Amino acid sequence: MKSTITRKIATAVTLLSLSAFSGTAQAQCLNAPTYGQYPSNTFIPTCAGTTASIATDCYAGEYSVVNVTSGVSYTFSSSINTDYLTIGDETGTTAFTSSVTPLVWTATVSGNVRFYTHTNATCGTQNTSRARRVQCTSSVPLPGCTTNTYPANGATGINLNPSPTFSWNPSPGASGYRFYIGGTAATATAIGIVSTPYITVLGAAPNTTYFWYVVPFNASGNATGCISSATSFTTGTVTNDDCAGAIAVSTVSGVQTADANYATQSLAGCVGTTANDVWYKVTTDFPGNFTISALAGGTGNAVLQVFSGTCGSLTSLQCVNAAGAGAIETYTVTGAAANATYYFRLYEFAGLKTTYNFVVSGSALPVTMDKLQGKVTDRGLAQLSWKTHSEQKNKGFEIQRSADGIDFRTVGFVHSKAPQGSSLEVLNYSFTDAELVTGAAYYRLVQTDIDGATEMSNTVRLSLKGMGGSEVVAIPNPVKDKVSIRINGERGASAMVQITDLSGKVVRQLQISANETQVDMSSVANGIYLLKYTDANHTQTMKITKQ
Prior knowledge:
Helix content is 2%, strand content 52%. By secondary structure, the protein is mainly β.
């Protein structure tokens, strides 16, 4: 059940009002900017013909993740009979179907999908409780058991840092897998459910033998007899429990996972209590600066201590614990010489045993974000996507739209997926604007930190029409003095603009050598003119008005 605190926060958020679009086209609402996913777990329906409630306190403007099997017919419904439903893929970028409740869909994929609820076809939101329900009947065959691939049967010395990723051969017809592990095959318990043929497991004990197997499932139920496919492996020691065992990472490490669940204290803590630490070392490739950023798992409070020197003769450069619980700790080594080795250790302030994500890089930004990308769907809606490689106290992303690329207005907000706004993982985001794209539309993001600081993304231009991916616009129109001719897209060779009155008389003509050119219209009489753009590949004519 949603907490009272969650409800108070949700009520305080201004509901997004998205303008309706003209005609009879229907939206496919893949946006949940205010409420996101609810509940947090994946719902696996029992396809026995009865209707099951995912939850009864759901909101409009959020989604649930549901596991489905290809070829099985599902009926999705809401307890509010005017709600608008959309079924999308697991990442929220492609819509499979949508309609007013109930929605009947024969699954075309096996795995997880998103089940969105909105108040109407313009993706309206509402913080009033409603039940989100699924009903299905399955006659598809049960999937078969599969074969483990990593760790290999009988393998020893399996590394615990980073935590091992278990893998197996996909089972035809499976929509998901239950992962079992334990001291024996008979005592193994299910610790995870995934839709992919792999899973990363944290917290394995050192020098311990484990047995594991997976049970594929689909809408008809679980594969049977899969305990017979169990294999075993033995973990290695915690090699980086002290300076001498420090694991080498590069100055462009990418996100690394550190498991300190079985670490012990090798050196007294610089702050906090018992320093159950894990150690790493960085050897520089060239002179300059590098940054270490670390985040403890859950609500853990990470301590990052950085050293120069050698094991047995270390000099502490910095003990970092400024950001606090659930936040990223960062330290930059400046003026490092080439081929110099630096050590750092991670531990939890209160002595808790946990995991960490960390990155070693040439620079550290509050939010490291890829370029915004977009496309127009076959229903004429703008679908945006972007991802972040790291986030530090990020509130989220304001989505802005413009008709001319100059004057922007806000059309939505997507909250950060990172716990407490901080993450060192790659996080994928998407947003679908409910307003139709007519002509051209420009979009950009305003990334907003919890403290109010902002950063602008690149701008993308989307269009239903164009000339091989290019379009010419005249700004302003009507024009009083000067009109700016802007080419959005590729400018071909021998580009030229000709402006004529309605009788065909040429009043302006010029070669175009840049993607934006101003034309002086101050001495031209008021009236309507035809502006014709031509180049080696394109021709476009438009009306402009002189006032």
